[in-house]
Design goal:
GO biological process, one term: dopamine catabolic process
Number of strands: 28
Structural class: mainly beta
Largest sheet: 6 strands, mixed
Membrane topology: Single-pass type I membrane protein
Helix content: under 10%
Organism: Circaetus pectoralis (black-chested snake-eagle)
Pfam families: Cu2_monoox_C, Cu2_monooxygen, DOMON
CATH superfamily of the largest domain: Copper type II, ascorbate-dependent monooxygenase, N-terminal domain
GO molecular function, one term: copper ion binding
CATH class of the largest domain: Mainly Beta
Number of domains: 3
Length: 381
């Protein structure tokens, strides 16, 4: 085990020089090495009271890794060369409970050869019909199906429930969203039933919750909105990305839904250039939640996961919750927001939102490197 005796706590200064930390806070829990892999499991306190350590919170952390094929010698670490990289993680995000059977049925909602324009931002809409189930089923997991090589092109995907009075003619073609010539049928699609964003993996519903399909009240026609991010104005891109919905006839106790809170697309919401920090607030008022929940859900709704969403200027997002005028614990937050890592936060304990509560979505932006006005789009789903 001599190989592992060199585990040490280091930190780096502003010049990226590694220095041994006089306060050693990392502890080896497990180690293994074979002909191909070296595995180290280690632990430390979330808050070490060491100025050289970063506190671990529920926010995104950027893990920096590097390695050399030789062990560290007495002279210190060996230069890693190109064996290095970074990865954004949310270390305190609870483990997802995978209780799904590999034999569960599924259906795919995918675009068919969509020509992505050579412009910075495109929203593409396509209507789909949910396969007829004849009786209630529950969707238990939704997976992104991102075309290989388009991982940075597809920024987010929204799924809207549309009017049930449509006919199959609306399935014939897609169109650019929010366009003067888009089909009128798109205007009937207002309720978001699922959202995915760049960097996220598949979303697994809790074991007691599922997205209902198959009843008269459930979505029969859905609109899939795909945001394409093409800042390099690449020409000739053809995309076939979408979503896979896995479902089961074994019903769960509760039906899932989506509540959107935040700042909607508006010409009146913009961020001045050259701002090191600019804060916007989206208010879901007590009157709004009273009207939305009072008659249909007087006992409130239970929140089990949150997806915080912003674009390149986003630096931090906080979801604040008020009950009877008193602020509760933050519903969700990310003080180290990463545009390329937008994943659902599973709450450790479900939170109840009651009629008459308040929700405030607090968004922090930085435009210090911009010379033009920034127009803000949807920031939380």
């Amino acid at each position: 085990w001599a190989t592992f005796s060199f585990q040490q706590d280091y930190f780096t200064d502003e010049n990226r020089v590694l220095k041994k930390d006089p306060q050693q806070d990392y502890h080896l829990e497990y180690a293994m090495e074979n002909s191909t892999h070296t595995i180290l499991a280690f632990s430390r306190e979330l808050h070490t009271c060491d100025t050289n350590d970063k506190s671990i919170t529920e926010s995104t952390v950027r893990v920096i890794w590097a390695y050399h094929h030789k062990d560290m010698g007495e002279a210190g670490q060996n230069y890693h060369g190109s064996n290095r990289g970074t990865k954004s993680l949310r270390l305190l995000n609870p483990e997802k409970e995978e209780v799904l059977s590999a034999s569960l049925p599924y259906f795919d909602l995918t675009n068919k050869d969509v020509p992505v324009p050579d412009k910075d931002t495109t929203y593409w809409c396509q209507m789909f019909k949910i396969p007829v189930q004849h009786e209630k089923h529950h969707v238990t997991k939704v997976e992104p199906l991102i075309q290989k090589g388009h991982e940075n092109l597809v920024h987010h995907i929204l799924l809207y429930q549309c009017s049930s009075n449509l006919n199959d003619s609306v399935l014939d073609y897609g169109h650019e969203c929010y366009h003067p010539n888009m089909p009128d049928s798109f205007l009937t699609c207002e309720t978001v039933i699922f959202a995915w964003a760049i960097g996220g993996e598949g979303f697994t519903y809790p074991p007691h919750v599922g997205l209902s399909i198959g009843t008269a009240a459930d979505p029969q026609f859905v609109l899939m909105e795909v945001h394409y991010d093409n800042p390099s104005y690449t020409e000739g891109l053809i995309d076939n990305s979408g979503l896979r919905l896995i479902y089961t006839p074994v019903l769960r106790k509760y039906d899932a839904g989506v509540i959107e809170a935040g700042l909607w697309v508006s010409l009146f919401h913009n961020i001045p250039p050259g701002m090191p920090e600019f804060v916007s607030e989206g208010h879901c008022t007590l009157e709004c939640l009273e009207e939305a929940l009072g008659a249909e859900r007087p006992a409130g709704i239970h929140v089990f996961a949150v997806l915080l969403h912003a674009h390149l200027a986003g630096r931090a997002i906080r979801m604040r919750h008020f009950h009877n005028g008193e602020e509760q614990k933050l519903l969700a937050y990310d003080d180290e927001f990463d545009f390329n890592f937008q994943e659902f936060q599973y709450l450790k304990e479900e939170r109840t939102i009651l009629p008459g509560d308040n929700l405030i979505t607090e968004c922090h932006y930085s435009t210090v490197d911009r010379i033009r006005m920034t127009w803000v789009r949807r920031v939380l789903m």
